[in-house]
Amino acid sequence: MLDPIQQRPEIEAGARPVQIAALESYWRQLRGARTLPVRTEIDPVCIDSALPYSFIGERMAPSIVRLRVKGQRMNQTVGSDARGMPLSTLFAMSARPTLAAEIDLVFKAPAVVEIALGKEGDPTQEIGRLLMLPLEDHTGEASRMMGAIVLQESARRLEICSSIPTRREILTPLRRPTLGFEDTSKEKGPERRRPALRLVVSND
Length: 204
Known about the structure:
There is one protein chain. The protein has 204 residues and is an alpha+beta fold. It has one domain (18-170): PAS domain (Beta-Lactamase, 2-Layer Sandwich), CATH 3.30.450.20. The chain is built from 3 helices and 7 strands. The protein has helices at residues 18-31, 72-78, 96-108; strands at 54-61, 64-70, 111-119, 128-136, 142-151, 158-160, 167-170. Strand 4 and strand 5 form a beta hairpin. The longest helix has 14 residues, at 18-31. The protein is globular and about 45 Å long. The protein starts with 17 loop residues before the first helix and ends in a 34-residue tail after the last strand.
């Protein structure tokens, strides 16, 4: 059973928790122009405000992620030490197929996924957010995940909130700006541009 989590002013129903926003902002800074940042680049000091709600997960199968590192609030979420447990343990049985598909997308696409959470028995009311951010391992494979769960109130098990669409962002390397040079060497006829300067040699 999920332990009660004290409601804070920055965590309001229907609003994006500031911890979720801070974690994603840090992940994007690490990512830069690449597709994904690397797991070993994560510095807990840089995510101080989000750290109690955060976790690092490892992909064990296409749709299964096990929690390897977690903040103190994650322990409260499951009522015990969450290390080694599948993320799906926190969810009602009815929500697990949907969660599995979203986890698979995070690693396969790869993609950023943010899910509004409800509680078992009342999936229409949002009580928190789950953010999942893919990471590369030392081999360059997307097999790790940084994420966070921020809840506004307690629940026996979590559901996927049916009233708020899941946010999915498929990731590709960011394009760097290119220089505005145009190759006209292959143009023929009157359309071919003449060079702006010509070298004239005189032997007089």
